[in-house]
Amino acid sequence: MLRQTKSWVALVLILQVLGAIFNAVDAKPFRILLDTDVATDDFFAFFYLLKLNRSEFELETITINTNIWSDAGHAVNHIYDMLYMMNRDDIAVGVGREGGILEDGTILPNVGGYLPIIEQGMTSAGYCRYRQVIPVGHGGRLCTDTNFGIRKAFLPHGSRKYSPLQQPTAQQVMIETISAGPIIVFLIGAHTNLAIFLMNNPHLKKNIEHIYVIGGGIRSENPSGCCFGNASLSCQPDMCGYPGNLFTDYNSNPYAEFNIFGDPFAAYQVYHSGIPITIVPLDATDTIPITEHFFKAFEESQRTYEAKYCFQSLKTKLAPLSADKSDTMGLQDPSCFVENGKGKCKDGYTMEVTGPGAVHVLVATKAKPNPDVHSKLDQQFFISFLDVSSYYLNFNLSDISNSTHIDQM
Ligand SMILES: *[C@@H]1O[C@H](CO)[C@@H](O)[C@H](O)[C@H]1NC(C)=O
Ligand SMILES: *[C@@H]1O[C@H](CO)[C@@H](O)[C@H](O)[C@H]1NC(C)=O
Ligand SMILES: *[C@@H]1O[C@H](CO)[C@@H](O)[C@H](O)[C@H]1NC(C)=O
Ligand SMILES: *[C@@H]1O[C@H](CO)[C@@H](O)[C@H](O)[C@H]1NC(C)=O
């Protein structure tokens, strides 16, 4: 059930920690750049971020990763419409454009970022060594691009929309935002955009104070949250005992997690950049499965439009899982199988190592329990998320829009 809830859960955890730091230091907000593939869990995190106190957390820029779960035009329009709903048309949004990497290694300014770095040539179309693990239709990109069909029906539309040749590029907005001063970067999709940025602008590295990565599986052995005697209909017990979550390719590569697998070389660049990094891997997010109690509490507390949108998305997303999990075939690389039918490929595995090739990163391991032991919501995260999602910002949609779309849900 929790297969893709991780970005959202993890971002809330990080922000709680940063909130504590904030009170201790000076009074400037943390400037934030969010790089996302706009999957369901990602936009939950994005709404949460937008609703925090802007004197403490200022989300300035969003860059979109289009290597894995989503396609550029849909992802940009989705973000624009959500920003419009939140009265935040001021936030810059960047995505790749034509550009590329020349044979001699020269990286052109508007490099697309539609492909993993090692496959990026002078075109935005290419082989899909990693992306083929993502189903194109049901359960995959179609669902992310349309948010299960509810995106256009629910969200109001402002004046910003995707415009192929005029859309600001990810690299442009990254350069503008990061050169403006110290910043924190959240990577909640594959790492292509930031890796290209770092390779091209090493002099701006010093402005990135910290990178928070939602991705990887390190010591997790229960990535589907339902192993070892607790199997139910929605479980995939074959995923037990290994750290990864490539549910479409699990038999050939049980080690990788999607966000890293989407562009392993980009992840390598980011981790070896020398910038302080915290990884929130499946190990940590596995400790917060979505419980029935949470689902119910969320259903009952949908006061704001953003809470309604998130709840409807979650409900739609979870619905087909128990009934139909068959339509998710991706890559099944026969050269990766060993005798017992389990894979040996480890592309994209965030493995613990020591020695000269190793880098130091902080790794989150476990969510905080709810201090109220009598509450049915056992994790502090649930309380925080519901609180934040249900309060009103100091405007209402009717103030900014005459949209009729908004009342349909
Ligand atoms: C937002 O944060 C600032 C700085 O910590 C604080 O002074 C202010 O009271 C906060 N506003 C709200 C509405 O909590
Ligand atoms: C199954 O889940 C229940 C409730 O979450 C838990 O108390 C129990 O320890 C789990 N059993 C196993 C074998 O993991
Ligand atoms: C927005 O609407 C809600 C529900 O009708 C109301 O409680 C809240 O006060 C409104 N906020 C503003 C700023 O008008
Ligand atoms: C909303 O409707 C009013 C009255 O019909 C109109 O004057 C105004 O321009 C509209 N605003 C937008 C943003 O469409």
From TrEMBL:
Pfam families: IU_nuc_hydro. Residues 1-27 form the signal peptide. Keywords: Signal. Residues 32-338 form the Inosine/uridine-preferring nucleoside hydrolase domain. Gene3D superfamilies: Ribonucleoside hydrolase-like. InterPro entries: Inosine/uridine_hydrolase_dom, Ribo_hydro-like. The keyword Signal applies. Belongs to the IUNH family. PANTHER family: INOSINE-URIDINE PREFERRING NUCLEOSIDE HYDROLASE FAMILY PROTEIN (PTHR46692), NUCLEOSIDE HYDROLASE 3-RELATED (PTHR46692:SF1). This is Inosine/uridine-preferring nucleoside hydrolase domain-containing protein. It comes from Hibiscus sabdariffa.
